[in-house]
Amino acid sequence: MRIIGLTGGIGSGKSTVSNLFKAHGIPVVDADVVARDVLKNGTGGWKKVVAAFGEDILLPNGEVDRPKLGRFVFSNPEKRQLLNRLLAPYISSGIFLEVLKLWMKGCKIIVLDVPLLFEAKMDKWTKPIIVVWVYLETQLHRLMTRDGTTEEDAKSRINAQMSLDIKRARADIVLDNTGSLADLNENFQKVLVQVMKPLTWTEFALS
Ligand code: ATP
C-alpha cells in the first residue's frame, strides 16, 4: 500500500487538499480526527491528561475543554511538551490502526494528513510527502479570516510551529496554494497524476 504524506503549516490548506483527495476517491486518515478521539471521555489519553492537568480542564459533562487546554498549554511550552509526550503514543497507534483498517479493506493508495508529520517523525512512514505551501502573508490572512482572530494571535500560532519553509525544503512535492481555489485545483490535478504513477523499481527500492 502506498501511503502519501500530506502536511503543511497551520491554515496553509491541508484540509482543503485532503477534501480534493477524498473527492477523487482516495481515502484520507486525518490525524486531527484521531487526536480528538484520543481525548474522548474515559479513554487512556483522557485519563493521562486529567491526571497531569487536573479536573479544572474538564467541562461539567466530563469532556476535556479543548479550547481551555489549548490556551493553557499554548502559553506554557513545558506544558505543551508534556501534553505532546502524553498523547503522542495514543495518536500514533490510533493513526496506525486507521491505516491498518484501510489496508485490510484492500486500499492501494491512501493519504495521511498529519500537520506535525515531520515533528512527530511520521515522515518515514510516507512517500511521497506533499507539503501544502503558501506565502506567509496569505497564510496569516486566511487564518485570521477563518478563525476570526487578531493578527497577533495568528502570528503567534504560526510562529509556534516548525517553519513552513523548512517543511517545504523537506517535501517530495510542494503544492503551492497561494492562488485561488481554482489555481489550487489545477496544481492538485498535476500532483494527482504524479502520485498515482506506479513506482519504478529504483523508487520502490529507495522508498
Ligand atoms: P489547519 O492547520 O488549521 O487545520 P489547514 O492547513 O487544514 O488548517 P484549511 O482549513 O484547508 O487549512 O485552509 C485554511 C483557510 O483557507 C480555510 O478557510 C480555507 O477555506 C481557506 N483556503 C484554503 N485554500 C484557499 C485558496 N486557495 N483560496 C482561498 N481560500 C483558501
Automatic annotation (TrEMBL):
It holds the Pfam family CoaE. Catalyzes the phosphorylation of the 3'-hydroxyl group of dephosphocoenzyme A to form coenzyme A. This is Dephospho-CoA kinase. SUPFAM superfamilies: P-loop containing nucleoside triphosphate hydrolases (SSF52540). The keyword Coiled coil does not apply. It comes from Cinchona calisaya. Pathway: Cofactor biosynthesis; coenzyme A biosynthesis; CoA from (R)-pantothenate: step 5/5. Belongs to the CoaE family. GO terms for molecular function: ATP binding; dephospho-CoA kinase activity. Keywords: ATP-binding, Membrane, Nucleotide-binding, Transmembrane, Transmembrane helix. One of its GO terms (cellular component) is cytoplasm. PANTHER family: BIFUNCTIONAL COENZYME A SYNTHASE-RELATED, DEPHOSPHO-COA KINASE-RELATED. It comes from the Eukaryota.
